[in-house]
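Lecture notes, unit on protein representations.

Consider one protein chain, 299 amino acids long.
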Amino acid sequence: MTFETQLRDNAARTEALLAKLLSSETRADEITRPENLAAAMRHGVLNGGKRLRPFLVIETAALLNGDADVALRVGAALECLHCYSLVHDDLPAMDNDDLRRGQPTVHRKFDEATAILAGDSLLTLAFDIIAAPETHLPDDRKAALVLALARAAGIGGMAGGQALDLAAEKNAPDEAGIITLQAMKTGALIRFACEAGAIIAGSDDVERQRLRSFGEKIGLAFQLADDLLDLTSDAATMGKATGKDAGRGKGTLVALRGADWATTRLRELVKEATDLLAPYGDRADILIETAKFVAERKN
């Protein structure tokens, strides 16, 4: 199976599970699911996308012989949390965007209050999915996943990175500050996606750190490629507004070092990520292709 076929297959499986998890059907101990809120959540999640983060959970777990059904559920949980961040990031108080994945953002399709509540509910649902009895993992691994995801998503991870990103509109950070910001805002969830496969598989600390480091490399590559596309692509290709960073005076590594440097650094990051997976031989081919895809993507 080619990388593109595998990516599409995993995205379709993730989408199907997300549709089930986001239905209006109540679960044990829920009272009811307000239809307007459920519809807003579905709009924020079931709108296409490459589902790269779930793909990384699924494929790193497969590399280490982790349970495939568990990996699919953890990937869906991560996607709920990722989509919550997009719903909130698009709000007027944040980036004030009208378009996401080629569709109206949640606050434009519904309203701001509903968008806030949809994001809140998606964040909570992520941990619900991991903790639920349908996720067939020993409790210690579930706890490790919950802790790792909370740390990746919270004040010392994605949310903290968002705060630094907002502050960067007023006071542009230096290169070290930009790297820290991007490692938190974008890289932390991608790092978790790769580390999660090792947690699911019950791997030792050495293997868990190797996959974590791989995630850090491709997380940096993802943001670097995103900054390059923000500079060189258009809204029709990207499915969202472009040129935002330059328009707001935000510092990026591309703005600081230039597009040629960024292209060279992307190649280096792919090589570094590939080298980390050398112990796995041919079994890591799909993840190596993922690293290349992240660096070379066009949207």
